[in-house]
Amino acid sequence: LAKTTQPISMDSYEGQEVNITCSHNNIATNDYITWYQQFPSQGPRFIIQGYKTKVTNEVASLFIPADRKSSTLSLPRVSLSDTAVYYCLVGDDDTDKLIFGTGTRLQVFP
Amino acid sequence: DTGVSQNPRHKITKRGQNVTFRCDPISEHNRLYWYRQTLGQGPEFLTYFQNEAQLEKSRLLSDRFSAERPKGSFSTLEIQRTEQGDSAMYLCASSPREFGEQFFGPGTRLTVL
Question: A74: which of A12, A61, B77, B91 fits an S-S bond (Cβ 3.0–4.6 Å)?
């Protein structure tokens, strides 16, 4: 089973841009890439979803290269409330199962 | 609140007992997912329903686990003969379409003593 990997943790200061990358080299051809935010003792919350190139919404941007083997979540001007764990979610090409990434714990400092 | 709800929020049981969790998805969502999450790890896919049909099951879902979604509405996840390794947060999510955004419930935290 292919692993979907992310950096374990990242630190940032308020107002900075944060980029979190997910490596998913066995992504299913027809599947989307979705990113979620999770606070302690809560279920994950949707941030953004894309298939290829770039997607932007009111809270984030998602960059996906042509080979789709990775993706980068970009959070502009983070605040203290963005301190959370961030996960990517993709479908695995071999098993056709959904796989969450290993998660990135983002700590934002004042 | 029209989000995904899960009951109970917490369950403590003794090893060997059976437990059942319930998930009520957002009413117009025909897709429903179950995940398991242990401390410090990402959620692991367990199973997936489209309406009342269970379409996919993970190998993590041993024969002690069973899930149902009668009439394509709420879903139940039952664990028989619980083991300490079953202790985890069990998350339910629903979605209105294939590859769509999943809306997660608050989870049921299971502790097996």
Answer: A61
